[in-house]
Write a structure and sequence with these properties.
The complex is a heterodimer of chains A (383) and B (654). Helix content of chain A is 63%, strand content 8%. By secondary structure, chain A is α+β, with helices and mostly antiparallel strands. In chain A, strands 3-4-2-5 form a 4-stranded antiparallel β-sheet. Chain A has a two-stranded parallel ribbon with strand order 1-6. In chain A, a hairpin with a 3-residue loop joins strand 3 and strand 4. In chain A, helix 2 crosses helix 10. The longest helix of chain A has 36 residues. Chain A is globular and about 80 Å long. Chain B is α+β, with helices and mostly antiparallel strands and 654 residues long. Chain B contains 18 helices and 25 strands. In chain B, helix 13 packs across helix 14 and helix 13 crosses helix 16. Classes of the chains: A alpha+beta (383), B alpha+beta (654). At the A-B interface, helix 5, strand 5, helix 6, helix 8 and helix 9 of A face helix 6, strand 25, helix 13, helix 14 and helix 15 of B.
Chain lengths: 383, 654
């Protein structure tokens, strides 16, 4: 394979396993698409579209808090919601959606179409809840008429489509088409990953979900841009390398920062998941999934896609003849036109420890400093 | 230290100070309101206030007297509707307010045992300067944030102005029992939807169940005609014999109409007494009303959404009027009961609420029942005098929102002053007065979105997000300092500056408008904390590489910031684009999220780039610069490399 020796020089070959990364990404994307298929088309084999919340369906929702935790664990919560549903049906209220969370928060959604109907439902629900649980407290009520529901839905779609379009245009303007296409594929991957997650877990989606999607996309592009920037820079620096090698080097060089930015961005989200309460959790969980996916896609999808596209378009710079020399601090010297490819140079690989080990000058500096401190300590001990 | 670095550090310090002054406002010039604590206690009454009140006195008056007798000065009591009593008080300090609360509670328990405290709140008003130098007041620093409804509780109602009205009469009344009306109503709504009508409101009159009113959003005459055919067909399909009771009516609609609606609702709310209510237009024909902190919103919403049209109409002579069981009943010559709506439609209007000269007054009629006294405007009084003079002995029915309040006999010629009687309680009379004074809405409105959140839920959310925020921050700080060492520590200081900038952005009123902090906004802020250090990570990783390639500390810092700059800009622009669209199309909480994230990204550009660079450069002129390992990541420390055997791993791989 072309450029093998440079990868050996780099010791870690991420770009070489492109097909593996892309397969993983492809599976995630496929799950996202499968999640979108309505279950009636597949006889219930697919999880079924998205669990749209009140904002999009319209209707009324009443939230109650119980004085103590009554249902612990998912099974108990399911049992309790089934019981409440049957009690409500007995009281003449059919087609309710009930969610029990944290053992003591119960939200009941009905299909009220207007304020008057919402009030009728509120009375019925209040009556049933007070009979079932002593000391129950109503925490909130919300009624969304069909007019608003439709408005929220259309605004959500507008925000998502226009937001994506705006980001796409920006990428297109700032990068050449190949990079832009790769970034867009990475971005589609992240959107589908979030959709796969919400459709398989049945997390309820309300209008803040649009914010989740666009934030994820913004972050994913953010991460991709870091790698692409480095690739552009390295392409200028190592002109005689193949693109494949430059890309691999860039991934490795930026790996630490990708992981670290991912970590710091996710720290607050992890804490919200643990301590933030149910309302925050429904928002933070898809966000966490999306941001993780954004981190994955920028390293393991965007870059391999660029490599493949460039290979398809024959835009590969000719192979290395001489292994890359560690560039000096001065700007890279202009490189002569690449020479025709020859057989790989065996020993070339070993002499180019570019990314992993530190440069001699620095190592020397550090060792010297340590030696100095050690000498000082020894001196102290002697005294 | 060169001048350039000093200047940059001074700039950062200046921004810190400015942000501090904006968000905490420790110095105010001019007159400041005197400090006091306002106490609000809401009591629920077991029985209607009119029943609990002593003879000849309104209930709230009685409570006020009792408070006065107990030497509780600076207090007042007010009834809101029939079952809620609000007691307000003012104290000079928090302790004083607490004592006052105890005393009021004891007094209420003793004198009015049927009133139960359901909610009590304290609000600090004004300021207590630490130091006063002429017009300059120095205060204890305290930020003031504008919390959204999901964080502080309250109600948010969206009303839609209706544009057209259709009225129908059934041959067979459905009956006045709700059990009969509700299923029919559901069936009708479904039928209308099936016919393709949307954005409508359907009501069946409560008195007889014989009249059906449909409100729609028809925008033109042709649409009105189309809807007329459609509604007629749908009603006939469900109910059989249906006739139009009145010609379809198209309300005049313009932006001015919505402004008038907003103005009238504002007046009603002011009189109802909700502090810090916000009313604004939403879209073309909707009005948003936000009532923060209100717990029992249903009553307020009822008051806000009423059309409040008062009409005085002459009852046609063919109908006989009698009072039966506290209700006005109309009969024809054969003694058959006639639905009030039919009488309403057949009788002629003499004057309307528009002819009144506010304010009205609550008084008592000759039977000592509460009533509302009104004065007519000059032009209308002539007409009224003429009509009443000509029709002595006939019944003049008083209709409020098409409901018959009463139908007294005209005994004399009346010109300017009159009273509206009805079997009111004192509170009903006062609510009527509020509505009449505020004026009637030019168009009917309907509630299309109503969200009511209890304050406890909001407090819980704030509590939880504070814990999450603090822990998230600790994790970030620990990670940054452990991994990036000295620059990491500087990044954390910059993060503190970032927090201050956000606080300033959220407490500075921009042209009278202050951004609102919502739950997604809080999450957006926490997320932006993590993203704010992202830029620093990019820079520090770059710095490490530049140091490795043998540059001196100064040039390495310069190069690292310059090279990382474009990547950071690109990355942030995409997030900003997302925020712009979210803010534009989002509602309420989503807007809050977009706002915090957007402000956060902008502020992080300053804190992560300008401030960090200045501080890092400053650090190179201190003794820390002698230890360049402090500027490298933990992964570069020879000892860490040795312990983790990083070099060996690297070597063995090759």
């Amino acid at each position: 394979m072309k450029g093998r020796e440079a990868s050996v020089a780099l010791r870690i070959d991420i770009a070489g396993k492109s097909s593996l990364w892309l397969t993983i990404g492809g599976i995630v994307m496929l799950l996202g698409i499968v999640g979108m298929i309505p279950p009636q088309w597949t006889h219930g084999l697919t999880p079924g579209w998205i669990n749209f919340g009140l904002d999009f369906t319209g209707g009324a929702e009443f939230t109650y808090k119980l004085p103590g935790k009554v249902a612990i664990g998912a099974a108990a919560e399911r049992r309790l919601s089934a019981k409440i549903r049957s009690e409500l049906a007995k009281a003449g209220l059919h087609g309710t959606v009930i969610q029990v969370s944290e053992g003591d928060v119960i939200s009941i959604r009905t299909q009220a179409k207007d304020e008057e109907q919402a009030k009728e439902h509120e009375q019925t629900v209040n009556r049933v809840m007070e009979r079932m649980f002593k000391g129950v407290r109503q925490e909130s009520m919300e009624m969304i008429g069909p007019v608003i529901g439709r408005e929220l839905k259309s605004n959500a779609i507008k925000a998502t489509v226009l937001g994506l379009l705006g980001i796409l245009i920006y990428i297109w303007v700032r990068y050449d088409p190949i990079f832009a296409i790769a970034a867009i594929i990475a971005l589609i991957h992240d959107v589908l990953a979030v959709l796969a997650f919400v459709s398989f877990t049945h997390i309820m989606i309300n209008s803040p979900f649009v914010a989740v999607l666009l934030t994820v996309v913004g972050y994913s592009v953010n991460d991709t841009v870091i790698i692409f920037d480095r690739i552009r820079e390295n392409m200028k620096r190592y002109r005689e390398w193949t693109f494949y090698e430059v890309a691999n080097l860039s991934i490795i060089e930026t790996m630490a920062r990708c992981i670290n930015t991912l970590l710091t961005t996710e720290f607050p989200l992890w804490v919200i998941l643990l301590f933030g309460g149910i309302a925050a959790r429904d928002f933070a969980l898809p966000l966490l999934i999306g941001i993780t996916s954004g981190g994955y896609s920028s390293i393991f999808i965007a870059t391999p896609v660029v490599i493949i596209l460039r290979r398809l378009l024959g835009k590969e710079v000719a192979k290395v003849v001489r292994p890359a020399v560690k560039p000096s601090a001065t700007p890279p010297q202009p490189v002569q036109a690449a020479q025709p490819s020859s057989t790989p140079d065996e020993e070339g690989g070993e002499t180019a420890p570019i990314a992993v080990s530190t440069s001699p000058s620095l190592d020397a500096l550090l060792t010297a400093q340590h030696a100095k401190r050690r000498r000082k300590k020894r001196k102290k001990r002697r005294h | 230290m060169p001048r350039r670095v000093k200047q940059r550090l001074a700039l950062v310090a200046g921004v810190v100070l400015a942000a501090f002054f904006i968000s905490f406002r420790p110095i105010r010039i001019g007159h400041v309101e005197e400090y006091r604590v306002e106490l609000t206690m809401r009591f629920e009454l077991e029985e209607p206030a009119s029943k609990l009140a002593p003879k000849g006195q309104a209930f709230d008056q009685a409570v006020e007297d009792a408070l006065m007798n107990a030497k509780l000065e600076m207090t007042d009591a007010e009834l809101v509707g029939e079952h809620i009593l609000v007691v307000r008080g003012e104290a000079e300090s928090k302790g004083g307010a607490l004592k006052m609360r105890e005393r009021i509670l004891k007094l209420m328990e003793k004198k009015f045992p049927k009133a139960h405290l359901i909610e009590g709140s304290q609000r600090e008003v004004g300021m207590r300067p630490l130091l006063k130098l002429g017009v300059v007041n120095i205060l204890v620093p305290k930020p003031k944030l504008n919390l959204g409804l999901d964080l502080q509780g309250g109600a948010r109602v969206v009303l839609q102005c209706k544009r057209a009205e259709f009225q129908y009469k059934l041959a067979q009344p459905i009956g006045k029992e709700p059990e009969k009306r509700i299923p029919v109503r559901h069936k009708l709504i479904a039928a209308l939807r099936e016919k393709g009508l949307d954005e409508f409101e359907l009501a069946i009159d409560e008195a007889t169940g014989q009249f059906i009113t449909v409100l729609t959003q028809a925008k033109s005459k042709s649409e009105l005609n189309r809807q007329e055919r459609l509604i007629g067909a749908a009603l006939r399909q469900v109910l059989g014999d249906v006739r139009e009771a009145a010609k379809p009516k198209l309300y005049p609609f313009s932006p001015d109409v919505v402004d008038t609606v907003i103005e009238i609702i504002r007046r009603r709310i002011d009189r109802y007494g909700v502090a810090e209510a916000q009313i604004y237009r939403h879209g073309e024909d909707k009005v948003v009303v936000e009532l923060p902190g209100v717990r029992h919103a249903a009553e307020a919403i009822k008051l806000i959404g009423r059309t409040a049209v008062l009409e005085l109409k002459l009852v046609p002579t063919k109908y006989k009027v009698s009072e039966e069981g506290g209700k006005t009943v109309f009969r024809d010559e054969q003694g058959k009961t006639i639905p009030p709506m039919q009488v309403y439609l057949e009788s002629r209007t003499v004057i309307t609420g528009k002819d009144l000269k506010p304010p009205c007054r609550v008084t008592y009629d000759e039977m000592n029942r509460p009533a509302v006294a009104f004065t007519l405007q000059k032009a209308s009084s002539k007409k009224f005098a003429y009509e009443t003079g000509r029709n002595i002995g006939r019944h003049l029915a008083i209709w409020f929102d098409r409901e018959c309040i009463s139908a007294p006999v005209i005994r004399d010629r009346i010109s300017t002053h009159g009273i509206i009687t009805g079997r009111f309680t004192f509170e009903e009379a006062r609510n009527l007065k509020v509505l009449l004074d505020a004026g009637s809405l030019p168009v009917p409105v309907s509630v299309v979105w109503n969200r009511t959140v209890s304050p406890t839920l909001g407090r819980d959310v704030i509590h939880k997000s504070t814990i999450a925020g603090v822990l998230g921050l600790i994790m970030i700080v620990v990670f940054m300092v452990a991994y990036y060492r000295l620059p990491g520590m500087i990044a954390c200081i910059a993060l503190g500056l970032y927090g201050l900038l956000i606080l300033a952005a959220f407490s500075a009123p921009i042209a009278g408008w202050r951004p609102t902090l919502t739950l997604p906004g809080v999450i957006g802020f926490l997320l932006s904390l993590g993203m704010a250090v992202d830029a620093n990570i990019i820079i520090f990783e770059r710095l490490k590489e530049e140091l490795r390639s043998g540059r001196t500390l100064h040039t390495a810092i310069e190069v690292a910031f310059n090279r990382a700059w474009t990547a950071i800009l690109d990355a942030n622009v995409t997030t900003l684009i997302a925020c712009v669209f979210l803010y534009n199309f989002g509602t309420g909480p989503v807007k809050g999220f977009a706002l915090t994230l957007g402000i956060g990204v902008a502020a992080s550009m300053f804190s992560a780039i300008v401030a960090t660079k200045a501080m890092l450069e400053g650090a190179t002129y201190t003794s820390a610069a002698k230890r360049s390992d402090l500027f490298l990541t933990i992964a570069d420390n020879p000892r860490v490399r040795k312990v983790l055997r990083l070099d060996e791993v690297a070597r063995s791989k090759s």
